[in-house]
Specification:
Blueprint: H1 8-18, H2 24-28, H3 33-46, H4 55-64, E1 66-67, E2 72-73, H5 83-96, H6 105-116, H7 135-147, H8 153-165, H9 183-195, H10 200-203, H11 207-213, H12 234-245, H13 254-263, E3 272-273, E4 280-281, H14 282-296, E5 305-306, E6 311-312, H15 313-316
Antiparallel strand pairs: 1-2, 3-4, 5-6
This protein binds zinc ion.
Length: 327
Amino acid sequence: MTDVTFVKDKHIQYVIEQDSHRSFEYWLSEHLRMNGLYWGITTLATINSLDALPKAEVIDFILSCWDDKSGGFGSFPKHDSHILSTLSALQVLRIYDNELTMISSEKRTKLVKFIKELQLPDGSFQGDRFGEVDTRFVYTAISALSLLDELTKEIADPAVDFIMKCRNFDGSFGMVPGAESHAAQVFVCVGTLAITDNLHLINQDIKLASWLSERQVLPSGGFNGRPEKLPDVCYSWWVLSSLAILNKKHWVDLEKLEGFILSAQDLKEGGISDRPDNATDIYHTCFGITGLSLIDWKKYNFKEIDPIYCMPVEVTKNFKKWKNLSS
Ligand SMILES: [Zn+2]
């Protein structure tokens, strides 16, 4: 099945050139630039090639996206803060500098305030002050506070109540209470429960792991995000990370999944697409490669990826997770 090789050097080149293409699509994607940077840096960190991008320039770009008015990071200089770009900024900074020394205590205080003020009375989080609510933002906020070592029960408990309200009869999770089950929402909900030490709320029930393992589509071996949909490389991450957190990776055929991810590589130009023969992008490149890390990081000489935070374990092992209230 897995006779296609992993073209590491092409992928490195692909990530480096993201920034130099200066294509029309590139400039259209300003609102995703910080997320794109996280996907690129995570790709390089996972394949042990973080040095391929200039650290000082990356950090300068991130710091230039600080929005002092609201106290978070935007996706691009002069853009308003959003919780998604704030998490991406913190993830990249912490990959480079575990102590987050480039964030002053004044900025840190503002960041915590920005994130906490996005929480609504029902425990959910908005992405920004414009009010869209999604379980994605709950995970993003909880993960960001955890990265800052600023997570407290007072924030976590209502957030977990909200997550459990988004659970469906099939054991899976949706975007908001009553919304259709979707694999990416499963990751954010299971991730939130894992960060806040609440996996016991779902662990006794095998319905969720069954639903996740049914996402594997044969004969390709790739995962889909919902029943009846085509397989897509990014679900290699959303589904397999959730199964990894639940200790059920062995419920799927990992070799077939590996073959599917490898077959979606562009062997000439580097990069990975959503499915074989489609155009590559940095998002699917990142989640294909982090998926391969979950499958067998040693075989590829990758870094081991943390299924909860989607960051290298060597970084996340230092997280204190909860705020030390006595200090
Ligand atoms: Zn996808």
